[in-house]
Write a structure and sequence with these properties.
With 77 residues, this protein is mostly helical. It has five helices and no strands.
């Protein structure tokens, strides 16, 4: 997920992580849902939205799905 956003200290980045805390959650969102999310967060460049949606769709498997690792790390972001 870190590669999808240039700036990690933005509201859109933080709220994306809150809404889609895992790769599976982000990939389960529809293209329309993701587009609306980014537009609501004032991402106006269509190319940026399209690039992020493509990166989400083509991301491989996560390094781990172990809840003992994933859940505490979600609190740190």
């Amino acid at each position: 997920m870190l590669d999808w956003f240039e700036d990690k200290d933005t509201r859109v980045f933080c709220e994306f992580l809150e809404r889609y805390p895992t790769l599976k959650a982000a990939q389960a969102a529809t293209q329309e849902e993701l587009t609306q999310f980014f537009q609501r967060h004032r991402v106006i460049r269509r190319s940026a939205i399209t690039r992020r949606i493509e990166q989400i769709a083509t991301s491989g498997i996560p390094l781990t799905e172990d809840p003992g690792i994933v859940e505490p790390m979600q609190w740190l972001s």
